[in-house]
Fold this sequence. Notes:
By secondary structure, the protein is an alpha+beta fold.
Amino acid sequence: MKLLWPTVVTVALLLAGAPAAALNEAGPPLPPVETVLQRVAEQSAKADENEQAFQERYYFTRTRVTEYRNSKGGVKKREEKKRENDPRQKTHSNGRGKGFEKSDFAPNGDLLGRFEFTVTGREVLNGRPALIMDFQPAAKKLPERNFKDRFINKAAGRIWVDEADYTLVKADLHLTERVNVVGGLVGAVWKFTFGFIRERMPDGLWFTRASNWHLEGRELFVQRTVDYHEEKTDVRKVF
Length: 239
C-alpha cells in the first residue's frame, strides 16, 4: 500500500517519555484556544530550521522497525534499519520519503479550520508545563480534493503543546472512520493510530525521541496490518 503509507505518516506528524504528572488545578487560567493555535502555527513555521540545526549539532542513532502482521496478529515480516547522524562526517538530510512534501500539510488556516480544538488542561512533560488540546473533525462540510484530504478530515485525538514556546511535544491521534481509496476498490484504511513524544535540549532545540503507528487496511485484495516504531538514541551534542 505504497500510496497510503507516506500519506498517513506525514499527516500524523503534522498533527506532532515518562508518564505525565497533572498540574495543580489552582494554576493560572487556560489560554484561549485561538491564541494557542496562532502560536503553534508561528512556531511550526520554524520546524525546518530547528531540524537542520539539530542535525548539524547532534550525534544520534535512529532506529526504524516495521513489522508486517498476519490476520492473527503474528509477525510475518520484520524490517529494521539503523542510521547514524554524525555532524562531523556527513551531509545532512531529513531522511524522509518523497511521497508528499511537508508543505502539503502546513498548519495554516485551511488545515486548522478542519478541526474543532478544545484546551482541556495542563500536564508536566519532562519537567515542563504543557497545554492539553483535544481535537475532532469540524462539524461542517470539509473539502475533499484528494486522498490526503479524506484522511485529514477523519482524524481526531489529543496533542500536547509546550506552554513556554508553543512547540508540539506529544500527540495521540486516530481515524474516526474508514478511509477508502478510489471508492474502496484500490484500497482502504479502517484503523490507524499514531503517537510521538519530543524532547527539548538545553540549547532550546527540539527533537522527536520516539514515534509509533499502527495501521490496518487493504490494498486491492490483500489485507495489511503494519506496526512501525522509530526512536533516536545516544543523542549527544558534538558542536
